[in-house]
């Protein structure tokens, strides 16, 4: 019988930490559900179902995180929401 030697390798993985931000959408009494849904589909690339769920959460809870990522990617999306008349901020 022969003996086989197993070698366990250690691998170091470098991870790059990035601070993630969120776009928070706030409820208002001005915009319709359809407008909010269409804007989320356009600005945040949500599916219609995602956008509808976010609009319902905003309506009942007062706010909802609609997108998470690095600030540089969120800033133009948040600007689109604001230009469409929605209340949003990056936190």
From TrEMBL:
The keyword Hydrolase applies. One of its GO terms (molecular function) is peptidase activity. The keyword Glycoprotein does not apply. Gene3D superfamilies: 3.30.1390.10. Residues 16-83 form the Adaptor protein ClpS core domain. It comes from the Bacteria. InterPro entries: ClpS_core, Ribosomal_bL12_C/ClpS-like. Keywords: Hydrolase, Protease. Transmembrane segments: none annotated. GO terms for biological process: protein catabolic process; proteolysis. This is ATP-dependent Clp protease adaptor protein ClpS.
């Amino acid at each position: 019988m022969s003996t086989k030697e197993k070698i366990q390798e250690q691998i170091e993985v470098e991870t790059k930490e990035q601070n993630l931000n969120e776009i928070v959408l706030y409820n208002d009494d001005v915009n319709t559900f359809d407008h909010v849904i269409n804007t989320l589909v356009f600005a945040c690339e949500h599916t219609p179902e995602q956008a509808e769920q976010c609009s319902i959460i905003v309506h009942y809870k007062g706010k909802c995180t609609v997108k998470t990522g690095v600030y540089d990617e969120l800033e133009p999306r948040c600007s689109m929401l604001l230009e469409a008349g929605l209340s949003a901020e990056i936190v």
